[in-house]
Specification:
single chain; eight-stranded mixed beta sheet; about 25% helix; alpha+beta; Maf protein; about 200 residues; 5 helices
C-alpha cells in the first residue's frame, strides 16, 4: 500500500487531513509517525513557496518507493492589517506565543473597526512531491471576517476569531464535517485528492 507522509506534527491538522482523505487508498502518516525529524527553514514569500520548501525537504528524508510527501502552509490574512499575519501566521508574535495571545492581539488591533472593514480569509497551499520526483501545488481559501470576541472550542489556531457570515459563527463553533466542507484546507486537500487519484 502506498504511503502519504504529511509534513506536520500538528494533531488538529492531522485529524482534518485524515478525515478529508479517508477514501484515498493510502496509509497517511505524520512526520512524527514516519520517524522523520528535519529542520525546515520556511523562507518563502508565499504560502505556495513555503509548502513546496517543506515537501521537498521531507522528500529528501524518505525512501522514494511509493511514498508521496504532502506539506501545507496556511494562515490568516486580515485585510485591515495589510494581510497580516499571512505567511507568518504560525510564527506571529514569536514561535512559542499561544494562539490565545495572538488572537487577543488581533482583536485589540481591530478595536473600534466596523464589521465591514474586518474582512479576512484563511489560505491554504498544499504541495506534493511524488515518488517519481514530480511536484504540484493546490490552493484553497475561505472568506470571512474577524469577529469581536473569540468563540467556540472545536477548532484550533485562529478559528475562534474567524467568523463566516453563512453560519453566523466562528469556525471554532462549526461541526467538524461542516468545517471540512468550508475550510481552506478542505478545499486545497480535495483539489489535491483529484491529483492523487
Amino acid at each position: 500500500m502506498r504511503k502519504i507522509i504529511f509534513a506536520t506534527g500538528n494533531e488538529g491538522k492531522m485529524r482534518e487531513i485524515r478525515s478529508i482523505l479517508s477514501d484515498v487508498q493510502a496509509e497517511i502518516l505524520s512526520m512524527k509517525e514516519a520517524g522523520i525529524t528535519a529542520d525546515i527553514v520556511e523562507d518563502g514569500r508565499t504560502f505556495e513557496e513555503n509548502a513546496m520548501i517543506k515537501a521537498k525537504r521531507i522528500a529528501e528524508e524518505v525512501s522514494k518507493e511509493d511514498v508521496i510527501v504532502l506539506a501545507d502552509d496556511s494562515g490568516l490574512e486580515v485585510d485591515y492589517l495589510n494581510k497580516e499575519p499571512g505567511v507568518y501566521s504560525a510564527r506571529y508574535l514569536g514561535e512559542d506565543t499561544s494562539y490565545e495571545v495572538k488572537n487577543q492581539n488581533i482583536l485589540e488591533r481591530l478595536r473600534g473597526v466596523p464589521k465591514q472593514r474586518r474582512t479576512a480569509r484563511f489560505v491554504c497551499a498544499i504541495a506534493a512531491v511524488f515518488a517519481n520526483g514530480e511536484t504540484c501545488v493546490t490552493r484553497g481559501t475561505i472568506e470571512g471576517y474577524i469577529g469581536f470576541q473569540p468563540a467556540g472550542k472545536n477548532g484550533f489556531g485562529y478559528d475562534p476569531i474567524f467568523y463566516v457570515d453563512e453560519y453566523n459563527c466562528s469556525t471554532a463553533e462549526l461541526s467538524e464535517d461542516v468545517k471540512n466542507q468550508l475550510s481552506h484546507r478542505g478545499k486545497a486537500l480535495r483539489a489535491m485528492k483529484e491529483k492523487l487519484d
